[in-house]
Every structure is written in C-alpha cells, then in structure tokens.
Design a protein that fits this description.
By secondary structure, the chain is α/β, with parallel strands linked by helices. It has 18 helices and 21 strands. Strands 8-13-12-11-9-10 form a 6-stranded mixed beta sheet, sandwiched between helices. The chain has a 6-stranded mixed beta sheet with strand order 16-21-20-19-17-18, with helices on both faces. The chain has a 5-stranded parallel beta sheet with strand order 3-2-1-4-5, sandwiched between helices.
C-alpha cells in the first residue's frame, strides 16, 4: 500500500504516519509535512521522486501530475487500468491524507488583503481529495484527524469496510464543498448571485426541534456571538428567541441609555430604556406581567446586582448581556434551569443574507437593518408631533420592526405600553395591544402608536386615537392615505410617514 500525506493541520499526523509505517505502508509526502515526518524519524518519499518533477511556483504545483492522479483514479477492478499503470511505471496510491490551506481563518482577519486571501486558496489539495473520494472503493481519503484511529484499527484488522470508505468520501466532498463555498462567498460581488454558495459545519446537535418529534441541529458559528456561562444546552426555540432578543436590544446603544427587552416566542412583550438596568427592567416588565414568565431577557449593559435581584424574582429561560458582575453572576447561577449568555459580538450586520426554507429551496433576502437615519420621515397631518411625541415615535418605531406582522406598538418615549403581534388584521392587533395595556393597568392616554405597515383603512387610526394615542407613525402608501390622514386631523393627532415598511413574518 501507498499513502500520500499533505496536511496544513498537522494534529496527530506523526502518530498516524508512524502507525502506517509500522504496517508496512509506504508514505509519500510534500513540503512541510514531509519535513515533520522525517524529523520524527518516519521515512517519507518526496512527491518529486514519484512525479520526476520538482515542486515549482513557490509550491503552487506539487501534486498536480499524472503520476499522482493516475495512481488515485485507476480502478483496481478494471484490468486495462492496472495495465496502463504498469505500462507507464506508475503505482497505485491507496490512502490520501489531506486538509486544506486555512482560507476561512485568513479572511476572518480584519486586515487581510485580497492578495493574501488568494494565496490561501488550495488547488492541489482539493484535486487530491476529489480524486481519492471519487475512487473511494479502492482509495481511503481522510480530511479529519478524528478519523485516523478508526482507519488504523481497520487496516490492522485487514481492511476498512466499504461503508466506512463511503462515509469518509462523503466527508471529503463536504470538506471541499465548504471550502469552495467560503471562497465563492468571499469573492462574490453581486448581492444575490445566480448560485448561492453556502456551507455550514455542524456546531452542535440539538435534542429536538420546535417539537420533540422533530430532529434538529445547529450549524455555523453561533458560538462566535454568544458564550454560554450557565445552564443546560439551548433548545431550537431558545436559539430563535435569543437571536430575536439580541437583534432588538441592539437597536438601543448602551451609551444612550440602559435598555431591557423581554421576548416570548420571538415577539417583544416589553421594552424600556432608563438610567440603569433595574429601572429599565421595571418599566419593561410593567408592559406585561404575565408573558415574561419563561421568556428571554436581553440587556445592553453589564448586569449588576440590583438588576439581578429584580429579575431573579421571576422564572426566565435566558438572560443575555454583554457581561455580568461577579456577584450578579453568582446570584443568577443559583437557578439551574436558567441559561446565562454573554453577547460577545453584535449580530446586526453579521449576516449578509437572511434565509428561510421553502419546499425545494430557500428564500433569501438582505436583513432589515436599515438605521432610522436612512428613512425620510414626513409629517402628513396638520399638526406636527411635539418633541416628546417625536421621541416616543422614534422609540416605538425601533420596537415595532421586531414584532411579528401585523404589528402595533403603543409607547411612551422610554417604554412600551401595549403590543399587538401577528393578528390577521391591523385593527385586531391594535385591539390586542389595547387589551394587554388594560390588563396591565396602563393608561394609553397621551401615548403614541407605531404600525409596521400602512393602515389600509381609517378604522385602524380611529381605534388608536380612541385608545388614547395622540401621534402615529406608519410607512404610508395606502390608496386611502387621504382618508387615514383626515381621520388623524379630525382628532387633532399628529401622523408621520416613514416611507419604509417593516413586515416580519
């Protein structure tokens, strides 16, 4: 048997090569890998002795040669193939151990140049893996050091079963697919390419999906954004809620004010800002004192003991914060079923696309992360909002884009007062928001209301004004805008059009 080794990640390679050598398997190698093996006392034939051609172009061309690829691709069960090898004095290669240049790690550096990225695009390694994986009944292919021990056990027992060879080949093709997708995504210039280059590595298996009968797993680099400090593993639903909560809390910069957002089933049930987290929590919780039980709490400042003592009084699934004071962390860790997550990087702007599966494919869109400054607000009523109303409108508009459509949010300048989410009509969402406010004992007189999309009829505006709202913010664009504006004018309310809708399905 012959093995070809050319690896960037040299984890376990010496031990694996030594085991192969002890089994009488000849080793061919390249560059740094060959030096590492020889320094360990393991014989390793240079590729140039097999090809009769030196490595050239600063190592860009090493294994791209018929002497290598014929040895990989020849079918052992086809006599003509084996005769051709013999006629050209070539030998089969029965095992390939390759992993690729670190392209993903290279482009993750903030200062990387295009020239540096190009140099980390592996060519020969990918060709070796594809050739070996294509001929997997005869050629073992390894990309992961975790598979070394199992292959050695198989070879010592006589052979590696065909089913395992096929598994390793599939893993090799997945490895090259991930590699190519990463390169294609980095080099792309169009926002929505004709072919969507995507590949994710499994981050962790999940116990189940939305329901216990659904299998699920998490892929990608979720751990780059959140570090779990306490509690059992996150569930599928926990992860969705975590993303929704963090996306909302990032609407409120910590430098401006302390902010608290309470999420349930990806919908906000209370949001507030204040001078400190304790007061922001009290205001957010006051919006709805029932829904937060078992919910997700996100904050934009480090958790202190005063906030920790307040939230410890109710059961919450997850608390997300940029940091936790030691005494606050110690207190919150006392409840074993509570998860504590540290938000280590902003998620806003981290993803170029939002994806949603549909039968036979995926829907792809850019994230809805446009700042308020990008919108052109226009007062359309006779009366403009007062300064206090304008502040409340800005607050409500930040929140409403994170509420499932149809979305209605009643608010003051620093807190939500009533939230209506996901109803079939906008009037029903408004009624729900009013009812929730009444249940919480909140007086909506003097409030403002935000609608994520246009009011198609005047009845929605009339219902908001009847509930106590004095100013309204909405995208506008209805064929009945004049009727809607007239309803606001008749009540002396102010109305602002943003020109931008924020549906969230």
């Amino acid at each position: 048997m012959r093995a070809l080794m050319s690896v960037y990640d040299k984890t376990g390679i010496v031990e694996f090569a030594q085991a192969l050598h002890n089994l009488g398997i000849e080793i061919i190698s390249t560059g740094q890998t060959q030096r590492v093996l020889r320094e360990a006392g393991i014989p390793a034939l240079p590729v140039s002795e097999v090809t009769g051609f030196p490595e050239i172009l600063d190592g860009r061309v090493k294994t791209l040669h018929p002497a290598i690829h014929a040895g990989l691709l020849a079918r052992r069960d086809v006599p003509a193939h084996m005769a051709e090898l013999a006629a050209h004095n070539l030998q089969p290669i029965d095992l390939v151990v390759v992993n690729l240049y670190p392209f993903a790690a290279t482009i993750a550096r903030p200062d990387v140049t295009m020239a540096e990225a190009q140099e980390q695009i592996d060519i020969g390694g990918v060709a070796l893996l594809r050739a070996a994986a294509k001929n997997f009944p005869a050629v073992l292919v390894l990309v992961d050091p975790a598979d070394y021990a199992g292959v050695i056990d198989g070879l010592r027992a006589g052979d590696v079963p065909l089913s395992e060879r096929q598994r390793l080949a599939a893993k090799a093709f997945a490895h090259t697919a991930e590699y190519d997708a990463t390169i294609a995504a980095y080099l792309r210039t169009e926002p929505l390419p004709d072919v969507l280059p995507l590949a994710w590595r499994k981050y962790q298996p999940l116990r189940y999906g939305e329901n216990p009968h659904q299998a699920a797993a998490l892929y990608g680099n979720f751990g780059a954004f959140f570090h779990q400090l306490h509690g059992k593993e996150l569930s599928y639903n926990n992860i969705l809620d975590t993303a929704a909560a963090q996306e909302l809390i990032e609407e409120f910069p910590a430098a401006d004010a302390a902010a608290v957002a309470i999420i349930k089933h990806t919908n906000p049930c209370g949001v507030a800002i204040a001078a400190d987290l304790r007061r922001a929590w009290e205001a957010a919780f006051a919006t709805d004192r029932e829904a937060p039980f078992g919910g997700i709490i996100a904050v934009n400042r480090p958790v202190d003991i005063a906030f920790a003592e307040a939230v410890d009084e109710i059961f919450s699934e997850i608390i997300i914060a940029p940091d936790f004071a030691p005494e606050a962390l110690a207190l919150l860790r006392r409840k074993k079923n509570r998860r504590l997550l540290q938000s280590v990087r902003p998620i806003t702007g981290a993803d170029r696309w939002q994806l949603r599966s549909v039968p036979g494919g995926v829907l792809v869109q850019e994230p809805d992360h446009a700042p308020l400054a990008a919108e052109e607000w226009r007062v359309v009523t006779k009366r403009a909002p007062t300064d206090a109303e304008a502040a409340a409108l800005r607050f409500a508009w930040r929140v409403v884009k994170h509420v499932k459509s149809n979305a209605i949010v009643y608010a003051a300048h620093d807190r939500t007062l009533g939230i209506g989410a996901g109803q079939m009509s906008r009037v029903d969402s408004s009624r729900l928001a009013v009812w929730k406010a009444q249940q919480a004992g909140i007086d909506l007189r003097g409030s403002v209301v935000a609608s994520d999309a246009l009011f198609p009829f005047a009845d929605g505006v009339e219902a908001a004004i009847a509930a106590g709202a004095t100013a309204i913010i909405q995208p506008g664009g209805s064929v009945r805008d004049e009727e809607v504006i007239a309803a606001a004018d008749a009540a002396g309310a102010a109305m602002v059009f943003t020109g931008r809708r924020h549906f969230r399905h």
